[in-house]
Amino acid sequence: MARYPFKSFREFSYSSIYLYYLSITVLGNVFVHYERGASMDASKLISAVTKHEFNDQYKELHWSGNFRQYLDLVIERPAVARTAFQRVYDMINSYGYETYTEYKKEMYHWRFFDDPLDHGKDAVFGLDIHLNKLVNVFKAGAAKYGPEKRVILLHGPVGSAKSTIARMLKKGLQHYSATPEGSLYTYTWTNIGEILNMDNQMACPMHEEPLHLIPTDRRKSVLDILNKNRDRGEAVYIEGELCPACRYVYNHLMDHYKGDWETVVSNHIAVKRLILSEQDRIGIGTFQPKDEKNQDSTELTGDLNYRKIAQYGSDSDPRAFNFDGEFNIANRGIIEFVEVLKLDVAFLYDLLTASQEHKIKPKKFAQTDIDEVIIGHTNEPEFRKLQSNEFMEALRDRTVKIDIPYITRLDKEVEIYKKDFNSSTVPHIHIAPHTLEMASMWAILTRLEEPKKANLTIIQKLKLYNGKSIPGFTEDNVKELRKETVREGLEGISPRYIQDKISNSLVTDRGTGCLNPFILLNEMDSGLKNHSLIRDEEIRKRYRELLSIVKMEYEDIVKHEVQRAISADDSAIEKLCGNYIDNVKAYTQKEKVKNPYTGETEEPEERLMRSIEEKIDIPESRKDDFRREIMNYIGALALDGKVFDFRMNERLHKALELKLFEDQKDTIKLTSLVSSVVDKEAQAKIDVVKNRLIKNYGYCEICANDALGFVASVFARGDVMKKDKK
Questions:
Q1: d(CA 330, CA 282)
Q2: How many CB atoms lie within 10 A of CB 288?
Q3: In the predicted structure, residue 509 carries a pLDDT above the cut 70
């Protein structure tokens, strides 16, 4: 029995083996020689290509054998005869998944959609729920539960990653077919020239499964032997008949050999490894709508070869037909319909039998079997049109809709832009902290529905969705918020708009070398005037109001960072914390505090304690509870042999920082930045704060100055308002 003729290797990025191995093997050797200082010439490059490893890998991917050897492969590894749905699901599953809990529900994150093949180039973020639904469709289709007879329709607004998901599936399947785990095979007719008066060899034009060569009436007996002692998940199935071209050759050879099937397959069948490739139109097809006058259904099912009609004498001779439509060439793999619902109705009719019966109808030939995943994507206007068209009920009934909405989680939206705009892709311009975050925040706010709860703002809703806890709201409340929405994530600003505005901001020469949030927010604001997808002036007005909310949020963030930079003296915070804890301890235990200067005992300093607690909104009525909570926490640590540190309690840490900032901001004289004169002592203190912003928060010299100047103007404005009130 022939053994499976492969070694263990996985790293293929292209179907073209030469491209891959030249890039890895040749360049690897060139760099080694270059680093060693050796001279390079053409002979060294040639020798790098012709190494034994390359030849071995090439042979593995171009394996060929006879039909008997292929049966041995099927016996040893029945997975080589999988259906298209099984292969796509196994491909996704081969990368594994991670589980996590969100709103008390177990969630799945499929690593395939991180795009490990291209180092995250097409990675999809924040759509785990919807991608898991898609994977479940493939899983059910692989188990033959019904979805394998449906058109998978990715539905969502523009720019929501529908085409990216389809592209990743095609790319992933192409790569998977070049691995041992994803191997599949087809066949070629050989030595048929004299018998059939045609070319001596003919590859199956639809790259069929070799098991189709087994006669229909013998298949049950063969499968009973193949599947003996195998569970349902490992069982081999033979579905479909030979394509018209192969059926023509098969019937003539059977007539020639008087029905001797074994001689036919032994003398005239060569089985070979099949590598799927979109570029070579093997197993992966793409079809997109064109001008109605130029559309022709033969693009899907193949067309006559007029040059060969004269040779074979009939336009119904399969030898005079090109089985090269997108349905034909996508057999064994996947076909993507770009903007599927924009296709002419005649094309949509072809989808009915292609999905439900797995058959297509080439011109002047009987229905032909196909085995492929049919996936399309569409925007909402076309989908609503389909829903209202009563003549398309059959297609609606054969469609599995998977919603692909916009992201509504802030940190995932930020990842989209960080992937494209970072220190590697934009090395010449520094992107200030929170710039991409503020753009993402505005994009998500445009996609959220106004909360129905009176005590919840839309910015708080965004934070809840992003996993931040807000007093008075539990995980169950967040689930309710999501359930009460109708169109959340299906409307709003597209990531493409944000990407375009980031690009515009980067290439506009302001001579600063740094992109800050206000530059980008202003660019997004000015772009709304000419936004091609916004026709309603009320929507444009609402989006501008949301921009104002984002600017206020950024003001709070940058103020807090400057405050922390000013009060970043850990020794001062620790001293203030010790003083606070001594007073709280004395207060809760009804004791007095020893004055470190006079040595006398005094009552706990209520003014000091309240000045700290008020910074984190502890009301007068809750001060006793908060103080006891702190002391209980310290006591629990002591029982475990641990010493309390102010960094252990986030709320207290924040309160201490704000208190220290309030005490120190006047000595820093930050407001002097908005005046024309800054004395040396004040400038030295400001430089210390600026260096902390650069070191601890990722600012550069330019945006640190901008942040300090902005916060100084805010404080100056506040001082003016206080004077006016007086």
A1: 6
A2: 12
A3: no
For residues 1 and 712, the model is more confident at 712
Q: Is 136 exposed, middle or buried (0-12, 13-18, 19+ CB in 10 A)?
A: middle
Separation CA 61–CA 79 (nearest Å): 17
Phi, psi of 646 (to 5 degrees): -60, -25
Measured between alpha carbons, how far is residue 420 from residues 110, 517, 550 in Å?
22, 17, 22
Is the Cα dihedral 392, 393, 394, 399 positive or negative?
positive
**Element housing 286 (H / E):** strand 284-287
DSSP H or E run through 356: helix 345-356
- Specify the DSSP element, H or E, that contains 274: strand 269-274
Which residues neighbour 474 within 8 Å (Cβ) at sequence distance 6 or greater?
Answer: none
What is the C-alpha to C-alpha distance for residues 199 and 193, in angstroms, rounded to an integer? 5
Q: Is 153 in a helix, a strand, or coil?
A: strand
Burial 690-723 (b: 16+ CB within 10 A, else e): bebbeeebebbeebbbbbbebbbebbbeeeeeee
- Per-residue pLDDT of 113-149, as tens digits, reads 999 999 999 999 999 999 999 999 999 999 999 999 9
**Integer-rounded Cα radius of gyration of the chain:** 34
367: how many CB neighbours lie within 10 A of its CB? 14
CA 706 to chain centroid, in Å, comes to: 34
Per the document, the length of the chain is: 726
Q: Which of 530, 572, 147 is nearest to 356 (CA)?
A: 147
Q: H helices within 645-700, ranges in order? A: 650-668, 680-697
d(Cα 683, Cα 680) in Å, to the nearest integer?
Answer: 5
Triad 337, 343, 349: Cα angle to 5°: 90
Residues pairing with 285 in the sheet? 335
User: pTM (2 decimals)?
Assistant: 0.83
Domain ranges of the chain: 1-62, 410-565, 569-664
Contacts of 685 (CB under 8 A, 6+ apart): 667, 668, 669
Q: What are the residues whose beta carbons fall under 8 Å from the beta carbon of 643, sequence distance 6 or more?
A: 637
Residue 711 CA to residue 381 CA, distance in Å, equals 46
Residues 6+ apart with CB under 8 A from 402: 130, 133, 134, 137, 152, 153, 154, 155
Give CA separation, 695 vs 67, 264, 562, 690, 700, in Å. 68, 76, 13, 9, 9
What's the distance, Cα to Cα, between the start and end of the chain in Å?
A: 98
Backbone angles phi, psi at 366, to 5 degrees: -70, 165
| DSSP-based three-state secondary structure for 630 | helix
Mean pLDDT of 52-60: 70
Torsion angle of the four alpha carbons 125, 128, 134, 139, in this order, in degrees rounded to the nearest 10: 130
Containing 270, the helix (H) or strand (E) segment is: strand 269-274
Instruction: In whole angstroms, give the CA distance from residue 683 to residue 673.
Output: 9
Reference 22, options 52, 56, 48; nearest CA is 48
Q: pLDDT tens-digit profile of 298-336? A: 889 999 988 888 888 888 899 999 999 999 999 999 999
